[in-house]
Specification:
The chain has 475 residues and is of the alpha+beta class. It has three domains: 96 residues, Quinohemoprotein amine dehydrogenase alpha subunit, domain 2 (Lipocalin, Beta Barrel), CATH 2.40.128.120; 239 residues, 3-Layer(aba) Sandwich (Rossmann fold); 89 residues, no CATH class. The chain is 30% helix and 27% strand. It has eleven helices and 18 strands. The strands form two sheets. Strands 1, 2, 3, 4, 5, 6, 7, 8, 9 and 10 form a ten-stranded antiparallel β-sheet that branches. Strand 6 and strand 7 form a beta hairpin. Helix 2 packs across helix 3, helix 4 runs antiparallel to helix 5 and helix 6 runs antiparallel to helix 7. The two termini are 39 Å apart.
C-alpha cells in the first residue's frame, strides 16, 4: 500500500518525470555536481540524488535520481541558486526542495511534497553512486530465459513476464511468483533489491521453472493497478497458471504458487478454488485478518523505531476509529467527511495546537485516496483463514523472526490452524532467526534498513525452498 507504510510490503512514493526548463542564475559553478540525502517515507528512508549541472554560460539544470526505487534521470526544475540559497521545484511531483549551502560539501534544507515537509540534508557525492547487490544474478546463465505474455480473460488485459526454464528436455515442475502489495515489476524490485530475480535464478538452477510477471499497469503489463483489489490481482495469477499449464515444457501436475506478503494471501485464494495447484510457498504470507495485520504492523514498527507506548496506543486507537468509519460508510465522500469530524474531535480533546492540528488534518487529507480505495476497503475486512481452510495441497510456510510487517508469532500459527481445521496436515513451517520481511539478515527489522542491507534474500531460505519443492517432485 503506497500509503503511510505498505500493508504487506514497503510503500514508496512514485516519482513522475517533470520536464521544465531551468532558469538562469549567476555564480552557479560552485554547486554543480551530485548531492545525496535521505527522505523519510512511512517508516523507511529513501535516498535521493540531485544532479546539478550548467547549461549555456551559467544556467543550472537538474535531474533527480531515486536509487532505492530504481529511478534515474528525472528532470526537475526550474532551479535557482543565489550563491547560498538553493531552490529546486518539481511541480509534477508536487515537490520542492529548499536548502542553504553550508559548505562545499553540505546543503541543509527541506523537501516538501504533497503537503508534507521533510528534513533533507544533502552531501556532495564523490564519484558515481552505486548500490552493492552481490546476489543479483549475472550471466552466463545455465538455463533459458524467455520474455512471455499471457492474457487475463476476466479483465481483458495482457500481462508480461519472464519464464526461466532449466536445461534439459522437461517437462519441469514450475513456480509462479506473486508479488506483495503495491504496484511492482516482475523482479519485485524494492530499495535496489530484486528478490524475485534472485529466487528465480536459484530455483531454475536447481531444476525448477519459474514464471515472474509485472503487476498489471507496471512495466510491460496492461491494466490499471490503482483500482484493483486483492481478489482482482488474484485473477492475474490465475491467468499465469493457465498459461503455464499449456506450456509443453512444464509438468501441468507440478505447478505451484509462491507468494510474498500480500502474494502469500493471493496464493490460497487461488488454491482454494483450483485443486490443480500442486503446492504453495508462503513467503511472509498473512494468516491473520487484514485489520489485525495493520494494527500489529503499526505497533511493531513504531516500537522498534522508539515511539513511546502511549503514543503507539493513541495512534492505534485513532486508526480503529477511522477504520470503523471506512467499514460502515460505503460512500467515499461521506466517509471522508466523517473521518474529518472524528479527527477534529480527537485533536480538540488532546488540546492540540492550531499549527499541529493543521498538519494533522493535511496528513489525513493526503491519505483519503488510500483509505477509501477499493484495495484498502477489501483488505481491511479480508480473512485469509477462510481460504487457507480450503487449501488441500502441500504448503511451505516461511517467515522471518524479525519481520515487523507480517509478525511471525501471529501469522504462521494462524495459517497452521486454518489448514488443520480444513484437515490439511501437509504443511512445513520455518521461522528464520534474525530475518526481516524481505528475508534479509537485519539488526532491528525496521523497513528503514532494507535499502542499506547488501543481502537481497537469505541463501538459507533459498535452499529450504528449493529442497522442499524438489522433495515434493520426487515423492
Amino acid at each position: 500500500m503506497k500509503k503511510t507504510l505498505s500493508i504487506l510490503t514497503v510503500m514508496l512514493t512514485v516519482l513522475i518525470p517533470c520536464k521544465l526548463a531551468a532558469q538562469d542564475n549567476v555564480g552557479n559553478k560552485a554547486i554543480t555536481g551530485s548531492w545525496i540525502g535521505k527522505i523519510p517515507a512511512g517508516g523507511i528512508s529513501l535516498r535521493v540524488i540531485f544532479n546539478l549541472s550548467l547549461a549555456g554560460k551559467d544556467s543550472l539544470i537538474a535531474t533527480m535520481d531515486s536509487p532505492d526505487q530504481g529511478v534515474k534521470g528525472i528532470k526537475v526544475g526550474p532551479v535557482k541558486f543565489d550563491g547560498k540559497e538553493l531552490n529546486i521545484k518539481a511541480p509534477l511531483l508536487l515537490g520542492e526542495y529548499n536548502g542553504t549551502m553550508k559548505s562545499d560539501t553540505l546543503i541543509e534544507g527541506t523537501w516538501k511534497q504533497a503537503g508534507k515537509t521533510f528534513d533533507l540534508n544533502l552531501t556532495r557525492l564523490v564519484g558515481l553512486f552505486t548500490l552493492n547487490r552481490p546476489q543479483e544474478p549475472k550471466p552466463p546463465f545455465p538455463y533459458t530465459s524467455e520474455d512471455v505474455t499471457f492474457i487475463n480473460d476476466k479483465f481483458n488485459i495482457t500481462l508480461a513476464g519472464t519464464l526461466t526454464i532449466p536445461d534439459g528436455k522437461g517437462p519441469f515442475p514450475a513456480v509462479i511468483m506473486i508479488t506483495g502489495s503495491g504496484a511492482q515489476n516482475r523482479n519485485e524490485e524494492l530499495m535496489g533489491h530484486k528478490p524475485f530475480w534472485v529466487i528465480a535464478d536459484y530455483l531454475t538452477r536447481n531444476g525448477i521453472a519459474v514464471l515472474r510477471y509485472d503487476d498489471r499497469g507496471v512495466g510491460k503489463s496492461q491494466g490499471v493497478y490503482s483500482t484493483a483489489t486483492t481478489a482482482d490481482l488474484g485473477t492475474d495469477a490465475e491467468a499465469a497458471f493457465i498459461y503455464l499449464k499449456n506450456n509443453s515444457l512444464i509438468d501441468p501436475q507440478k505447478i505451484g504458487l509462491a507468494g510474498h506478503s500480500e502474494g502469500g494471501m493471493i496464493a490460497p485464494m487461488i488454491a482454494a478454488q483450483n485443486k490443480e495447484v500442486a503446492f504453495i510457498v508462503s513467503i511472509a504470507g498473512p494468516g491473520a485478518k487484514g485489520e489485525e495485520i495493520l494494527h500489529r504492523q503499526n505497533y511493531d514498527i513504531s516500537k522498534a523505531a522508539g515511539v513511546s507506548e502511549k503514543d503507539i496506543q493513541t495512534g492505534i486507537s485513532t486508526n480503529k476509529k477511522l477504520f470503523s468509519i471506512i467499514k460502515q460508510e460505503k460512500d467515499n465522500k461521506i466517509a471522508e467527511e466523517k473521518m474529518t469530524v472524528a479527527i477534529k474531535k480527537i485533536l480538540a480533546k488532546e488540546k492540540t495546537t492550531p499549527e499541529d492540528s493543521e498538519k494533522a488534518m493535511k496528513q489525513l487529507q493526503s491519505q483519503f485516496g488510500t483509505l477509501t480505495s477499493s484495495w484498502f476497503r477489501y483488505f481491511l475486512t479480508l480473512d485469509p483463514s477462510a481460504y487457507w481452510k480450503k487449501v488441500k495441497c502441500p504448503v511451505l510456510i516461511l517467515n522471518g523472526e524479525k519481520d515487523l510487517q507480517v509478525a511471525a508469532d501471529v501469522n504462521p500459527p494462524a495459517i497452521e490452524k486454518a489448514l488443520i481445521s480444513g484437515k490439511n496436515n501437509s504443511y512445513t513451517t520455518h521461522v528464520f532467526p534474525g530475518l526481516n520481511h524481505l528475508f534479509q539478515h537485519t539488526k532491528t527489522g525496521l523497513p528503514s534498513e532494507y535499502g542499506n542491507i547488501e543481502e537481497t534474500f537469505s541463501p538459507d531460505v533459498l535452499k529450504v525452498m528449493a529442497d522442499w519443492i524438489i522433495h515434493l517432485e520426487n515423492k
